[in-house]
From TrEMBL:
Keywords: RNA-binding. Coiled coil: none annotated. Residues 47-111 form the RNA-binding S4 domain. It comes from the Bacteria. SUPFAM superfamilies: Alpha-L RNA-binding motif. One of its GO terms (molecular function) is RNA binding. This is RNA-binding S4 domain-containing protein. Residues 1-23, 125-177 are annotated as: Disordered. Gene3D superfamilies: RNA-binding S4 domain.
Length: 177
């Protein structure tokens, strides 16, 4: 018979307890937070917006961040900004990218690029959810090696793609109205 109130711990396959797993996870989180603190600018220093959106992994490269700023795809507090704009804690950053708008609020300034779990702790994501992917198969894909499509196959493909017979067609070399 087991006594009530006894300390019963589940053990893993190697005899490890759940507490050891929790400790390992806590150590990883602590190391990640320490990395973010190390990437933080010194007091009085500022962080450029192109560098910050790269450091928190909103863009793949810093030059892509600078290009997005120059192209007017980055707004801070509703205003278009240049790549050298100094971002501050509490600023709302809007980034248009790949047909989607990311809206984030700056929670922590960092200068160096960090891992994704740490980067997420540096901002509050207020972005709308991404649109659902279409479950429709792409129209008009032919089997490899099937050869050149016949006229009938080509017309079927055009109909599937929405380029049906009523669509205007540009034929080079024709001068007829």
């Amino acid at each position: 018979m087991a006594t009530e109130g006894a300390d019963v711990r589940a053990t893993g396959p190697a005899g490890e307890t759940d507490n050891q797993d929790d400790t390992a996870t806590a150590d990883k989180v602590a190391a990640a937070v320490a990395a973010a603190e190390a990437a933080r600018p010194a007091n009085g220093e500022t962080v450029r917006i192109d560098s910050w959106i790269w450091a928190v992994r909103l863009v793949k490269t810093r030059s892509m961040g600078a290009t997005a700023c120059r192209g007017g795809h980055v707004r801070v507090n509703g205003e278009r900004v240049k790549p050298a704009y100094a971002v501050r804690v509490g600023d709302e950053v809007r980034l248009r990218q790949a047909g989607r708008e990311r809206i984030v609020v700056v929670k922590r300034l960092i200068r160096k690029r960090v891992g994704a779990p740490v980067a997420v702790q540096c901002y509050i994501d207020n972005s709308p959810p991404p649109p659902p992917r279409e479950a429709v198969a792409p129209a008009g894909i032919r089997d490899r090696g099937a050869g050149r499509p016949t006229k009938r196959d080509r017309r079927d493909l055009e109909r599937l793609r929405g380029l049906g017979p009523g669509a205007p067609q540009d034929t080079p070399g024709r001068d007829r109205p």
